[in-house]
Amino acid sequence: xxxxxxxxxxxxxxxxxxxxxxxxxxxxxxxxxxxxxxxxxxxxxxxxxxxxxxxxxxxxxxxxxxxxxxxxxxxxxxxxxxxxxxxxxxxxxxxxxxxxxxxxxxxxxxxxxx
Amino acid sequence: xxxxxxxxxxxxxxxxxxxxxxxxxxxxxxxxxxxxxxxxxxxxxxxxxxxxxxxxxxxxxxxxxxxxxxxxxxxxxxxxxxxxxxxxxxxxxxxxxxxxxxxxxxxxx
Lengths: 114, 109
Description:
The structure holds two protein chains of two kinds.
Chain A: E1 5-7, E2 10-13, E3 19-24, E4 31-38, E5 42-50, E6 53-57, E7 64-68, E8 74-78, E9 87-94, E10 104-105, E11 109-113
Parallel strand pairs in A: 2-11
Antiparallel strand pairs in A: 1-3, 3-8, 4-5, 4-9, 5-6, 7-8, 9-10, 9-11
Chain B: E1 4-7, E2 10-14, E3 19-25, E4 31-37, E5 43-49, E6 52-56, E7 59-64, E8 69-74, E9 83-90, E10 97-99, E11 103-108
Parallel strand pairs in B: 2-11
Antiparallel strand pairs in B: 1-3, 3-8, 4-5, 4-9, 6-7, 7-8, 9-10, 9-11
């Protein structure tokens, strides 16, 4: 079966711009979570969506937002980009919940802000 | 907030050696996850544990809930095992996953 698909794989943006990243989960999975990975901070939880509702949110500013559609595909948006937003953004899908089922991760979107 | 500590941070070993990576956490959890990340970024979920021990091929993961400690073992290590191994926990009052800093493993032929 198809895995978790993230698009685009690479992205270069300028400070102040906004960006939208996409994540298509495994068919049948209803939970999508997003993570940011940087060399300094490592992996950090951004937010989790389940059945189109944000269920959990990490400690990130309001410039980071997301949504989930009825087909479980999810997007995350970062507005007013800063240099520090340069990172690998990973999404993971799960059948139903974060503490009961395992995760399948996508390959990530590498965002560079210049 | 759960603090997740991994050791060692870096490990270089010879092919065939038995490898152990340790993970400890500070607050009770629902589950502990071992993840593998290769250069290029993709993450593979190896194990999800809430108690006891799991084995998959040459990989073994154990968890001691009372001591808040888990270990990942690799038997008969091979150069293709070279990767970053990340411990993550879920539950324990925190939202989403909380990650350790990772262990960078290099297996030399």
